[in-house]
Each structure stands twice: as structure tokens, then as C-alpha cells.
Recover the amino acids of this structure.
């Protein structure tokens, strides 16, 4: 590149299952300097196919998508096409979205309230070998590093293969919280809470919330109420 010449535009694929959101992101990127949108995918499976076909520099990857979610698509892209970087662009900034995506190989992570300048910086950062993280995500990582232990202790032996997060959800059910209240407490979406509840019900054979409360008490995951279980 000659001195003073503009840098070559970053070739970008957008992956998002919501048509309106996907088209809006593509339109926004078309207005940004230094970015050329070369393809748009409706899910993770299509994103992997487009990367194989188009060899873009960067994929802007949503996380919650059908067929193949963003984490799995990121893992496959980084394994099969290491020349393509992944920047997550999602609504979710909770630990259960952030850390799996970074472990899968994403070099950037932005939430969908990011502005155009922030997206351009993230794309340029990952192409130069740096991380493209929004300020809020950087703070979340620092908080996690400074306090790596979960805020709520989990039993040493968790029954029925429940995860630590599923135990947290179960304990909050036992406290009488609704799905919406659990979501606010854990800083996740209600859809994520429903997924955890479905998983823990399947693992334990629980059929409803009343059985969940009894199970939590019986397994010692939460202290029983004064006077015992009625």
C-alpha cells in the first residue's frame, strides 16, 4: 500500500436470524468507512457455508440462532477457516453468552447497542491481532477475573448432573421467584431462564415448580423453611 492510501476495506459477513435486524446491520455497515459487506447469513450453518465460499476477513456473529448457534458456528469457523476472525454482535452480555463465545475463538464481543464507530474499531482491532471488546464487556471480564468464584456457593456434589447455573435457578424457584424475577436476578434473558428450567426438569424428572421446590429441599440445595416441608 502506498503512503497515504486508504486501508483495504474489511470484507464482512453478517450472521443474524432476525431478518429486520440482519438487514438493518447490513445497511448500517454499508454506511461505515472501511467495511464491505460481502454476505449475510440467516443462521450459524449458513454463516459457516458463506465463510467457506467467500473467505471474509470478519464475521459479525449473533449468538442465539436456529440450526447452529453462534458459539458452535464460531468454533467451526475458527477451526476450519483460521484466516477469518469473529466478532460477536448480540443482545446478550451475560456470562453464559460471553465466555463460551470467547472460548470458541471469538476475538471481539459487542452488544447490539454498539454504535457504528465502535463496530469499525472492533473489526479493525481483531484484524490487527487485538481484541475488539466493548467497554462494558471489558469491565465484565475484569470483574470476573477479580472475583472468579461464584457469588452463591453451590453444593460440593451436585445431583443428577445439574450445572452450577441450573442449581442457582432451582434455588431461586424455591424462593418463589418468577421467571422474569430470576432473569433480573441473574442478569440473563427470560428465554435463558426457561432453557435452564427445561434442562433441570429433564435431568431430574421434575414436572412442575412445586416438585422443583421439594427436590431442592430434599437434595440440600437450599435450606428448608422453618417448620419443615409441608
Amino acid at each position: 500500500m502506498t503512503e497515504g492510501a486508504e486501508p483495504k476495506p474489511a470484507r464482512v459477513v453478517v450472521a443474524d436470524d432476525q431478518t429486520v435486524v440482519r438487514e438493518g446491520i447490513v445497511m448500517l455497515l454499508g454506511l461505515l468507512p472501511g467495511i464491505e459487506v460481502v454476505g449475510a447469513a440467516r443462521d450459524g450453518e449458513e454463516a459457516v457455508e458463506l465463510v467457506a465460499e467467500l473467505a471474509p476477513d470478519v464475521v459479525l456473529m449473533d449468538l442465539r440462532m436456529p440450526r447452529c448457534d453462534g458459539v458452535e458456528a464460531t468454533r467451526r469457523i475458527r477451526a476450519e477457516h483460521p484466516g477469518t476472525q469473529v466478532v460477536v454482535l448480540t443482545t446478550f452480555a451475560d456470562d453464559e453468552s460471553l465466555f463460551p463465545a470467547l472460548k470458541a475463538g471469538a476475538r471481539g464481543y459487542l452488544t447490539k447497542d454498539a454504535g457504528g464507530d465502535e463496530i469499525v474499531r472492533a473489526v479493525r482491532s481483531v484484524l490487527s491481532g487485538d481484541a475488539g471488546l466493548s467497554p462494558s464487556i471489558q469491565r465484565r471480564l475484569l470483574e470476573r477475573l477479580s472475583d472468579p468464584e461464584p457469588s452463591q456457593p453451590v453444593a460440593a456434589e451436585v445431583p443428577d448432573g445439574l450445572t452450577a447455573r441450573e442449581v442457582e435457578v432451582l434455588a431461586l424457584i424455591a424462593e418463589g421467584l418468577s421467571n422474569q424475577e430470576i432473569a433480573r436476578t441473574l442478569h440473563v434473558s427470560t428465554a435463558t431462564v426457561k432453557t435452564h428450567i427445561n434442562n433441570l426438569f429433564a435431568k431430574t424428572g421434575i414436572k412442575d415448580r412445586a416438585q422443583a421446590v421439594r427436590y431442592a429441599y430434599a437434595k440440600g440445595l437450599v435450606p428448608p423453611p422453618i417448620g419443615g416441608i409441608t
Q: What stands out?
A: Strands lie at 10-15, 35-41, 58-61, 85-90, 108-111, 132-133. The radius of gyration is 21 Å. Residues 58 and 74 are 11 Å apart (CA to CA). The chain is about 50% helix and 15% strand.
